[in-house]
Amino acid sequence: MAQGAVPLAPGLSSFLKSLKTTPADPSVEHLIALLKRRQIRNSRPCAVATTALMLRVVGEFKGRDAAKMVERIRQVGRRLVAAQPREVVVGNIVRRVLGLVREVLDDNAGENTNGSDAGRSTPTPHDAMTRPQLSSSISTFSPLKHAHAEPMDSSLHQSDMSDSGELSRRPPLLSSHTSYAPASAAPLVNSLFGLFSQPVDSSNASTPTGQASPDGKTAQALNLDRLAELSQRANLDLKGEVMDGIRELQDELEQSDEQIASVALEHIHANEIILTHTASTTVQKFLLSAAKKRKFTVVHAETHPHDNAATHGILLTGRKRESHMHEEDDQWKPLTAVGIPVYVIPDSHVFAIMSRVNKVVLATHTVLANGGLVAAAGAHMIAKTAKEHRVPVMVLSGVYKLSPVYPFDINELIEYGDAGNVVPYEDGEFVDKIDVENPMYDYVPADLVDLYITNLGGHAPSYLYRIVADHYRTEDITL
Amino acid sequence: MSGPVLDEAAPPPAAPAEAPSNPPALAKAEEKAAKPAEDGAPKKLSPAELKKQKAAEKQARRAQAKSGPAPNQPGTPAKEGRRQQKDSNQTSKDDKSRPLPLRRRASQSNAPAPPPQQQKKDAKKDLRQLGLFFGHLYSQPRQHSMVGASKDVHPAVLSLGLQYSSYVICGSTARMVAMLLVFKAVIESYHTPVGTSLARHLTNHHLSPQIDYLRSCRPLSISMGNAIRWLKDFIIKIDPSTPEAEAKRNLLEEIDMFVRERVTAADKLIRDNAAPKIVDGDVILTYASSSIVEQTLLQAHKSGVSFSVIVVDSKPLYEGKTLARKLANHRLNVRYYLITGASHAVKSATKVFLGAHAMMSNGRLYSRVGTALVSMLANAQSLPVLVLCESVKFTEKVALDSIVGNEVAPPDELLSEVERNNLLPLHPHLPKTTTSKSDDKGATAEDAKPTALDVLKWVEDSQNLHHLQVLYDVTPAEYINMVITEYGSLPPSSVPVVHRLSTNT
């Protein structure tokens, strides 16, 4: 954090700047170094840096072999995660990018198999109505299901295909929705497309291979095989689409705060007393958006000794210290400037003040798939106190912080910070004789949280696993 | 909220003549002015009305501008200031540049002067508004000097008061003992004036100013209150016929006895009782610093039990540092956490020992702020929570939360010197409102390098930003498993019984 003071200090902005001119490989090294030295820390900078790097990596990727691309992303991702395993967001972004590649491929593969589907066996109407875009990912959600279900599917079609080979031979459709068009319309659409572009090789030639692959093969390998074949066969612009997807991811990162803030009025009513902690852009924007319409009071625990400087900074000026040279132009006013009284309290006062508090709004570092979260130290005692006082706890988090990791070992996720922040090293005698510990994060179990607000809306903690399933592929969970 | 708004609503009597162009608004304003001031309900004025009023006020002020500067109204509340500034944005530019309190003065000086006690009420209201949470506790600012102390105050008491207010003497027991020792000096140098008796005069006329001064330095602790009550009771019971020298000697002896019985002996009993609770391999967690916990830990350590200690501490007092250092000097294995790491600290602990500022009659523990958090976390981990407390700290007071009764500390203690210096680079990013405000005071401040003291000024200047600090919190009885006193170990529900026992005997 202290590096932010000097404009040339290595950090997120210097990395982004150098990324424009540096090729992918040195940039990977650069980011790894920054992560290792904690010169990029906290979820959002990590996410931004990783996405930018991924864009670069994919952009420089040569060849159209999807399997190789997946392998390349994976290999970069593995190194980034190894550099700083506790910044779970890095892994999240890598998985999202991998998911993108697979989605692009699946969409195309989907055209090939499902398209023929549409021609013959109509998908059940309610399935198509409720979650049309899920269907492709559901088939691959569990490795077991994937391994069995898909080949079975195609083999079924296989028997029928003999009499209508014409129909099955069709070019990949990029939009997944068309494939779920009503049965009556599907043949028409398909044949119209077929008029203009005839695929070079038949699609049914490829599908049986997947089916024939021995059962002993892992889902992973099977998947890669299939990917390779698909990408070789289909003349799709894999790279372009993946890059488009990454840019969408960047947009998501940029907009998640605004999207979360847009629902603020649904959660904050007039004259509430809201307790929050640490210096979080997301929370500040959320409260600011509510402040446009409502009057309320904010109690801010300063999160000593990690973020207290940033907390005071955010309250005095409306920006964190490290971000003032960051390109972030949309400087926002501090809450106090829009007429919201803010009371700063030391962290020890949380219990004393909680009996007056209506709602607790927490920022988070990472949200885990079981609904628990890792947040700045002190979050656990705040959430616990709120529970004891029956005060609802809200957690604000962009979907990018949502991780498919299950916390089997909580201590693994907790980073310990510089003990010098707790007791300055000048106090040599003290530091010498006494173990000074400075955990930087707290794990907050799911039962202490009442509501998660992500850029997709509000969710109960118990529902988070579903959002995880929507955003990450099972085959990518272990990088 | 209501006071200043009413002030604004009262138009200067001269206004109608000077501003005849807007009769309806003025009629309305007059109607409001006619209302009794006691009705108190804040009047919502439309911006247009405010504007008109302001114009009228401005004219009135110009008319009486030569009447000389009146003393500025000190301490305009932050919220009011913001409101008024927002209002002034709507009016003309020169209106904006004018310091805000002036406007109030103008309207006040023109209107029939309000009775002084109403002004006092205003100030009180302002204070209450300032402290949304502990507003009822802001009595008077803490005394940090001897200036203004009554001439009756004994020099030993003066120095003690300063030690209180600067936290040199801190902690319930220490403060009580120090007070009693100082009172001994006071009593020693006391001579009963002719025509009164020691029993009558000493308490009311000689000790009271001392106590008042101590209270102005820092509110009295529960134990101090108990000791003072005991002392006064004892003095009143002195037979008026006893010669002064003998009475004084008795009194001094009795004070020594009190300290010995209620503190020294009690501490010994408590630590004898508590130290065996520590067994080999224990990890004892404690919060902040308590002399009796320290004694207990050292006694257990001396008896050869091998255990380690976790000290959890919090800013701004960092009392735990002293404790940790003392324990470490005795070669105890000590780990040190800040309160943010408390949830990690309780994970490896096996028992929690807490000191007390007071035990309340509903079984709740009133202690250094943060104790409740630690005991809550420990309770959630099913760790036994033991409170060590002399019975002199028991009180018949009850409280359900930490807000009804507490001690408010000066908010500027929240930011230490180092932290203030860390915030200095923020200076160029301060919002315009704050910097422009400091411009009024001196444009040179803009160029000069900001110092640590300026940071406090930023906080002060930043309307709506308040730093809040109290010293104690109330731990619910259900988090406490055992209270160890000199009467034995009891559940928190037995506190009122012991309190009755200890005060009746």
State the main characteristics.
heterodimer, A: 479 residues, alpha/beta, Rossmann fold, seven-stranded mixed sheet, three-stranded antiparallel sheet, 22 helices, 11 strands, disordered N terminus, B: 505 residues, 3 domains, globular, cytoplasm (chain A), initiation factor (chain A), NagB/RpiA_transferase-like (chain A), guanyl-nucleotide exchange factor activity (chain A)
Summarize the structure.
Chain A has 479 residues and is of the alpha/beta class. Chain A is 51% helix and 9% strand. Chain A has 2 domains: 1-254, no CATH class; 263-477, 3-Layer(aba) Sandwich (Rossmann fold).
> Structural class of chain A, please?
alpha/beta
User: Approximately what portion of the residues of chain B adopt beta-strand conformation?
Assistant: 5-15%
Number of strands of chain A: 11
Shape of chain B: globular
| Most extensive contact | A-B, 64 and 66 residues
Q: Largest beta sheet of chain B: what is the strand line-up?
A: 3-2-1-4-7-10-11
Estimate nothing, just give the exact number of structural domains of chain A. Answer: 2
Structural class of chain B: alpha/beta
CATH topology descriptor of the largest domain in chain B: Rossmann fold
Give me the number of helical elements of chain B. Answer: 22
Biggest sheet features of chain B: 7 strands, mixed
Instruction: Report the portion of residues of chain A in β strands.
Output: 5-15%
Mean pLDDT of chain B: 76
Architecture of the largest domain in chain B, CATH level 2? 3-Layer(aba) Sandwich
Residue ranges of chain B: pLDDT <50 for 5 or more in a row? 1-45, 65-129, 433-447
CATH classification class of the largest domain in chain B: Alpha Beta
Region (Disordered) (chain A): 107-175
GO cellular component, one term (chain A): eukaryotic translation initiation factor 2B complex
Biased composition (Polar residues) (chain A): 110-124, 132-142
Pfam families (chain A): IF-2B
